[in-house]
Amino acid sequence: MSVENLEQIESVFASTSDELKTKVKDRQKKRLIGEDDEESIQAWQKSDTMVLNFGPQHPATHGTLRMVMELSGETIVKLDPSPGYLHTGFEKLGENYTFNQFIAVTDRMNYLSPLSNNIGFAEAAERLLGIDVPLRAQYIRVIQAELSRIADHLVSIGTHALDLGAFTVFLYAFRQREFIYDLFEISTGSRLTTSYTRIGGLFRDFPEGHEQQIKGWCDQFRIVFDQIEGLLNHNKIFQDRTQNVGKIDAKTAINMGLTGPGLRACGIDYDIRKDEPYLVYDRLDFVVPVGNEGDVFERYLVRMEEMKQSCNMIEQCLRDMPKDGPVNVDDHTISLPNKSRVYGSIEGLIHHFKIIMDQHGIDMPKGEVYHATEAPNGELGWYIISDGKGVPYKVHVRPPSFVHFSMMPYLCQGGLVGDAVAVLGSLNVIAGECDR
Amino acid sequence: MEKNSSDNPTVDKLKATFGSEILKTEMFRNQLTVIVKRERITEIMKFLKDDPELSYDLLVDLTAVDGLTMDMHPRFQVVYHLRSMQFGRRVRIKAPVPESDCKIASMSSLWQTANWFERETFEMYGITFEGHPDLRRLLTPEVFKDYPLRKDYPLRGKGEREVILPEGS
Known about the structure:
A: three-stranded antiparallel beta sheet, 20 helices, 8 strands, B: 169 residues, alpha/beta, two-stranded parallel sheet
């Protein structure tokens, strides 16, 4: 190795830490065939770095995410994630919409599991009010939240496998997701922009016979689930692409704010459904899957097991839920009266008017509340400040994807470009939620 | 659910250690809010993170509040949400920041989560985080110079959409 080469290497790594230098060098040595092939090491060291722009319109980003990578050969020396291409200003909108109007905005946040966002926001607002929704509504919310969790994980795993070259899984997963969207369409009236919850309850009850449809879906899903597992779990290519890639230890993960399946894959048993139960999760019998490696493959396994558990939870809910009853709180200052009362009595009309019209809305108490729910990707927190009007003073969302996307440099530096795609897929970063 | 204040030693320990630096504590809907002086925020957060009986090791969220139309004095508050993995407690720390001196110490050396949250808060509210390694705009383009989440910024913007962004921004 000549002095010239050394200087070149130093200039390349001037902006990077010692730890990363060794990481990159070790990685390169491992990539070489044979022990220490001096010639090829030198060939690599002579090469300059190049800057590669990844996204925002790249299929593997599953949205509009952009990363600027500095590459040395195929190794990522530096990675700078650059979000914001889908920035919509949801928080500014939240300060101008009434609480119920804002639910339509939450759909557009994580567009793989809109119901989770609906439920999370409604829960936060109800916590601010200090009310609980009726029992049947709570069960329905849990069913819908778990269905969206399965849908989200299916897309996550399907697209992740597609990026790594397994096309069949993608088709299996998306077919199932389409069935789930059909179920959503039956219950909420729309596939994607569900806007199903209202402050104090739901937009409407399940239609006649919908419980049987969900039950039937669960039964056939178990068979397909086993097929997806069979396609990936022992697939050598999939394992090679995912094992020991994007590893993170538990302490660093907590410091970086990783939550959800990613944190559980590191061996931390943290699930808000268990640790701070909301709705009826404390009545359900389910297991929180915990990994120990913290790599991409482990995150995949955790997601798979979560789908199984969600399926069980849905069946328990269908078994235990009250067969009928109200789905909205019986309080005219919070939930809208039904249409027959609006058109048939003056009180109903006034109550409707008071909630719907500008400068009115739901009477919220003054105060502030932070409420977190376990969304498919991690902790989805809502921080709402109310000054006693019908419009929130501030709505802030703590999106899991935003935090997870900021971890990309740590997880990818020293790896290959292909690994960055694998890591991005395993974190399941949703641009809409990241940029808000 | 957060624990009740009776079995939560956070307030007592904070008051014992920092005394008058703790301006106010509130409980609302079973959630604890502690308002502290911004000059000592680094020491207070470090204490909350490292004290073995508290060990708030997860910075869940970081944002700011603009109290312009709420008659808040001083105008801004930086809000931190912490969670202790070991004890399952949550706490909300707030530090008032005046408009004339929009500065507060950065938490990015304690939690790497703070890095992006502080960048976002900086671009949305114009609060400078001292000691932040890379305080650039995050979600808005570099040519955008305003602070959109401030209450005096109009909902539809100040006509930025009509201005064609220069090449390369």
